[in-house]
Amino acid sequence: MIRQSLIQIFIWKTCSDAEYLADETLDRVMLRVPKLRETYKGNPSAYIHAVAKKLLAEHLQLENSVHENPRTTDIETEKMFGCLERCLSNLSPYSRDLILDYYSEEHPKNVSHRKDVAEDLGISVNQLRVRMYRIRKTLEACMQACMGQESSV
Fold first, then answer.
1. CA distance linking residue 27 with residue 1, whole number of Å
2. Domain tally, the chain
3. 63, 76, 102, 127: which has the highest count of C-beta atoms within 10 A?
4. 153 and 80 co-located in one domain
């Protein structure tokens, strides 16, 4: 229910990747749950929506910076694709196939496709999200290392 409301908010804010942003919001909240249990008082959905608002601001800022400097974007994009290929090749075949299928352009942000993927794996959709989170974190760390390495060369 909360995820759907987050997706709707991101869609209203004209984000093309609303489902990813909703998942990222929930991922960030889940990382904070152990500390929040001890100290947070109030409605949890208010906290989740505050995290979504912050993520939306980050997303819009990133989009604006990309549009402001298109010359370097082409070079950076080329580097990013090279790093992405390298990082994807470092994943296990299972993880690589899973993340490529999950974010496939054939099924862009298609909730029913993701339900099918989870069902094929014999896991819940939430378990699938956790797996995707872990794979994304591995890819992000690899990408950061690769992009840092590329820019220093």
1. 16
2. 2
3. 102
4. yes
Answer yes or no: do 63 and 77 share one domain. no
**Which of 68, 100, 122 marks a domain boundary?**
68
Query: What pLDDT sits at residue 135?
Result: 92
Write the pLDDT tens digit of every residue in 43-66.
Answer: 888 888 889 999 888 888 777 665
Top-confidence residue, 14 or 64: 14
| Higher pLDDT, residue 153 or 11 | 11
Which structure tokens are listed for 102?
């999950």
The CB density around residue 121, as the number of other CB atoms within 10 Å, is: 13
Interatomic CA distance for residues 120 and 153, integer angstroms: 43
Task: Name residues whose C-beta falls within 8 Å of residue 52's C-beta, 6 or more positions apart in sequence.
Answer: 6, 9, 10, 21, 22, 25
Q: Residue 1's domain spans which residues?
A: 1-68
Q: Which two structure tokens, joined as six digits, stand for 111?
A: 């909730």
C-beta of residue 2 within 8 angstroms of C-beta of residue 29: no
